[in-house]
Design a protein that fits this description.
This protein has helices at 2-11, 21-24, 34-47, 59-67, 76-100, 112-116, 118-133, 156-166, 221-232, 248-253, 271-279, 290-297, 340-346, 354-358; strands at residues 14-19, 51-56, 105-110, 137-142, 171-176, 197-198, 238-242, 260-262, 285-288, 308-312, 320-324, 330-335, 372-374. The chain is an alpha/beta fold. The chain has 2 domains: 2-273, Acetylglutamate kinase-like (Carbamate kinase, 3-Layer(aba) Sandwich), CATH 3.40.1160.10; 282-374, Archaeosine Trna-guanine Transglycosylase, Chain: A, domain 4 (Roll). Helix 3 crosses helix 5, helix 4 (59-67) crosses helix 5 (76-100) and helix 8 (156-166) packs parallel to helix 9. The protein is globular and about 70 Å long. The chain starts with a helix and ends with a strand.
Length: 375
């Protein structure tokens, strides 16, 4: 186990470090703030020849504290306002802590729309990689001041997982106020034991795990495991550990048995297919017959018009859509080569008939295999 950890850590050159609200807005540890500790530990990580991208929660939690509120606001406008107050404090703390040791940080605020659009996804990647090349540590957070339910990631656990693809990372490190994954809820059952290693996240049983969180954050252990699953499918290992433990990053880099290690999938998705599977929000559905479903699932084929029975939703060519069977169950998703209006006209047709119906034929396939992900 220890040798496996050391091997994984040694290979990791670029690390996404997710810091939860319970860590950022918690009490100082041994008289030092989490920001000073993080700055020192990330500086040490850089001295080891590695790079770090920080995904930090805490804007709302710090905003609540700064405004003297007794509880987290319920409405979106109130949360947005509190986040606007707290985000300035959050970045000022990071900037001050990193400046003390001669390092620089940069604020990067994202919404789901920024990653759902392929062009904006690539623009964000270019910016982040340029910051890393300049030796600047990016501090990523969801843009809570403008995010509404339709464009929210849900929590920063999800954002950290998507960021592994965004910056082409080698390791995801999730720092929270828990020691890792347990077989039972340790807050309710004293016999709970930590799970040191999860070999296959897709086969892991989530029964017994609580989805709740503390009063500061939005994600629980379930969301962290889901983040680990998304990272695993990009071929990235994840470690969930206690961010309140002094020198936790240094201990992890030494291969110590800290937290829970989630191994990556061997059949990793490409960056583009990972984006299709996890970063996008499909705009519509195409219903396919059993023959086409079989060809996609087992034959490694593209989706042709002849296999499509119906289309649902309004979308343009280039948007991601759900591929569902005749019962409406999704089994794949991909980038459509034709709009919903065009697919409505060509569904059930052979490729040789497309030009006669549309007056043109851009592609033979409605979804090419290279732009399709089987779920």
């Amino acid at each position: 186990m220890k040798d496996l950890r050391k091997k994984i850590i040694k290979k990791a050159k670029r690390i996404v470090v997710k810091v939860g609200s319970a860590v950022v807005a918690g009490e100082p540890v041994l008289g030092r703030t989490i920001f000073s500790r993080l700055a020192d530990e990330i500086h040490g990580l850089k001295k080891e020849g590695k790079e770090a991208v920080v995904v930090s929660s805490g804007a709302i939690a710090l905003g609540i504290r700064k405004l003297g509120l007794k509880e987290k606001p319920v409405s979106i406008p109130e949360r947005q306002a509190v986040a606007a107050v707290g985000q300035g404090s959050l970045m000022s703390f990071y900037d001050a802590a990193f400046s003390e040791i001669g390092d620089k940080v940069a604020q990067v605020l994202l919404t789901h729309d920024d990653l759902g659009s392929r062009n904006r996804f690539l623009n964000a990647r270019n910016t982040l990689l340029t910051l890393l090349r300049l030796g600047i540590t990016p501090i990523i957070n969801e843009n809570d001041t403008v995010a509404v339910e339709e464009i929210k990631f849900g929590d920063n656990d999800a954002l950290s997982a998507l960021s592994t693809n965004l910056v082409e990372a080698d390791l995801l490190l999730i720092l929270s106020d828990i020691e890792g994954l347990f077989d039972k809820d340790p807050k309710k059952d004293p016999t709970a034991k930590k799970v040191p290693l999860v070999e296959d996240i897709d086969c892991f049983k989530f029964d017994g795990l609580t989805s709740g969180t503390n009063s500061l954050g939005t994600g629980g252990i379930r969301s962290k495991c889901e983040a680990a699953r998304k990272a695993a499918h990009f071929g990235i290992p994840t470690i969930i550990a206690n961010g309140n433990t002094p020198d936790i990053i240094a201990k992890i880099l030494k291969g110590e048995d800290a937290g829970t290690l989630f191994l990556p999938k061997e059949d990793r998705l490409t960056s583009r297919k990972h984006w299709i599977a996890f970063s996008t929000r499909p705009s519509g559905r195409v219903f396919v017959d059993e023959g086409a479903k079989e060809a996609l699932l087992k034959g490694g084929k593209s989706l042709l018009p002849s296999g499509i029975k119906d289309v649902d939703g309004l979308f343009e060519a280039g948007e991601v859509v759900h591929c569902v069977d005749m019962l409406g169950m999704e089994f794949a998703r991909g980038v459509a080569n034709y709009s919903s209006a065009e697919i409505e006209k060509i569904k059930g047709l052979k490729t040789a008939e497309l030009e006669g119906v549309l007056g043109y034929k851009v592609y033979d396939e409605v979804i090419h295999r290279d732009n399709l992900v089987v779920l």
